[in-house]
Structure formats: structure tokens, C-alpha cells
């Protein structure tokens, strides 16, 4: 089911779906139609792609109330627990505006302001993902975003998953619309009669959603273009093979293109995990997806030692990295590239997906080398503040003029000189 290889054989190919020229053409056509046709284009595409025949795009208050009647109280309680922990974690990320006054009276600083309106895309279709609603919306709420607009595809019955609506209300989403796919991204980017134009679009989706986000970037901001899920487990002989296999499969079941990799210097652990993967995979509800993922993108890699295992993990820069070793705190400092880091046998990746508090929207495809998890900073903007005193301008005038003239920008230099000229022209 899975091969045991050495680091030189470990594929570094990335799993991000880049799409084809034909798919890009389709998305461009959809975006153009939405920009031109507004709500009517959205209703038409929703019927074509989702089989829903909508009269209204916005979810009504009655539909929210019905959702609470349909969702078990145990799930509502779990969502509230997760929301509280996510909110508490992200509160610690908040930045404050600041100013400093220099001796001659100059004031310099930075103003922190939330974005005015953001759009959240939540996948629908075959499964409900209420946790994604919490992870995308709560940091925006904490940042102080005034309006949060959510889009998600309806089913053929014209309805949204009840758990998704409950999560939206618990997270603080202001409006929810029944539209998905590239057309939903276009609606958020351009605005329609019903859906307001936003400043930023966040949230995962399929290849058409990802491509639409790339194409509207610049019209609006986006969070990232994420690829299929990834997990790397670095483990030594102390690791429990049952735990390791279970954690690898927790990501493999997401997507047939998901990547699950074990890096270990222990041949005994490698063999035991290979056997466990086969045993556990046979019991999964999403057995076919997990099997395809493990066969095509999974690997058990035998390294010379733990140091080589960690170095290989840094090269892969995975979305999720687990350290299942005797002393994970000792090795934590050696980790340079990972979206989220999980230490020890009692920190499996799913705790990060749901209730630990850190965001589960993470960089994939090796982009953990330079990207960070979704957080409060993604929903703010920063403005530099400059208030020079005359004394400071006198002090710096010659340097500014010299630099401006060196760059051939004489108007820049004159903007400074004019403030020191005597006579009529300065009156």
C-alpha cells in the first residue's frame, strides 16, 4: 500500500492544483458573466452547477432558526467550545496603533485599522465544514471587521447545511448567501445586487475557486491559494505505530491528492506503521480517498538519524508537522518551516483542526517557508503616520534634497526647498 524509501527517493513534487488552460478559460468566462449579470448570473450558475433553483440568494432569519432545531445540542456545544478557544487564541494576536514623539517634536507611528468588509468562502457539496467557518470568521471578528459576508453552495433542496449555518451565527458572520464556485468569488470581488463587494476573500475551495481567487487578486485581497492537505510525522523508535498511522490517515482522508509522509530513522517503526496503515485504512468511511492518497502521495522515509529527518521536514515545509519523538521540545528549535507544529503523542493533528485554538487555515505546497497561518493580521491594514516638526525638517532637508536629486526627482527636491525660500513666493 505504501513504499518505504530513503530521503533521496522522496518526491518533492507539490500537490497544488494549478489548473489547465481550459479551466482558466471557464473561470474567466464565469467571472465576466457575474461582473456583467450580477444576481441573475449567480442564480443561473447555481442551478447549473448545484441543481438548486433559487428565488433568493440570502439565507433568511427563519432558515437560521430552523438550523438550530436540526443540529444536535452536543454539536452546538462543541462548536461553542471551539469558538471560545479560537477566539481566546486569536485575541492574543491583536496589534495596537503606536506613536513615538522625538525630542524635536516629530511624531512617527503606525495606525492599525480593520478591513471594512471581508468575504468568507465555505465549501459545501458532499460534506459540511462548520469548523472552517469558525477558523475563517473569528479572526476577522477579533480584528474588528465591520461586516463579514459568507458564501457557500446550496444543495439541490436549495438549503445550506444546518451545521454550517449554526457555525456562522456562533462565529459572528453577518450575512450568508447561497452561492458557491468561481461565481461566488466573483460576486464577492465585484459585488452584485444582493452580495456586497468585499475588501478581501478568504477560505478554501476546489480548483475553480482557487483559480478564481488568483484571477480577482488585485481587485480584492486574498488569503492564499491553498493546495491539498499535507502532514509530515517525524518519529523515532519511541513512537506508537498505531498513533502514527492514525495521524497520517487523518490527512489522507481529506483528498485523494493529500500528502502523508513519515520520516523516521527506525526500520522497525517504518514496518509497523506500514502494517497499521493497511489495517486502519480498511475501517475508514472514506477508505477509497485515503487509499488513493496514500498510494499516490504517501511515503515512509527511512533517514539516517533524527537530524536528517528534521532537515528533510524543513525542506518539505509541510502544512502540518508532528514530532513524535522522545524529547519533542529538544527538536522543536530545529524546525524552521511548518504551518503548524504538534509536539508529542497527545497532540495529534485533529486537535489543531478543531478545538486547540490556533487556526487550521495553513500554508500548503511548501509555502510555509514564507507564509503563515490565517490570523488577525490578515484582517487589518497598517497606515504609517508622519508629523514632522519644523526643526526636524531643517535637520533633514539637505539629505532629502541630495537623495532626490541623485534619483533625478527635482520636484521632490523643490518640495523641500520651497519651504525655506524667503520672499513673495513663500507668502
Write a concise keyword list for the protein shown above.
427 residues, alpha/beta, Rossmann fold, 3 domains, 6-stranded parallel sheet, 5-stranded parallel sheet, 16 helices, 44% helix, 16% strand, globular
Fold and architecture overview:
The chain is α/β, with parallel strands linked by helices and 427 residues long. The protein has helices at 21-37, 39-50, 61-70, 73-91, 130-143, 162-171, 181-190, 207-216, 241-252, 267-281, 287-297, 306-316, 328-332, 349-354, 390-406, 410-417; strands at 4-5, 98-101, 107-114, 117-121, 147-152, 175-178, 200-202, 221-222, 230-235, 259-264, 299-302, 320-324, 340-343, 380-387. The chain folds into 3 domains: 21-93 and 114-222, Rossmann fold (3-Layer(aba) Sandwich), CATH 3.40.50.1980; 227-370, Rossmann fold, CATH 3.40.50; 388-426, no CATH class. It contains 16 helices and 14 strands. Helix 4 packs parallel to helix 6. The longest helix has 19 residues, at 73-91. It is globular.
Give a summary of the structure in a few sentences.
By secondary structure, the chain is α/β, with parallel strands linked by helices.
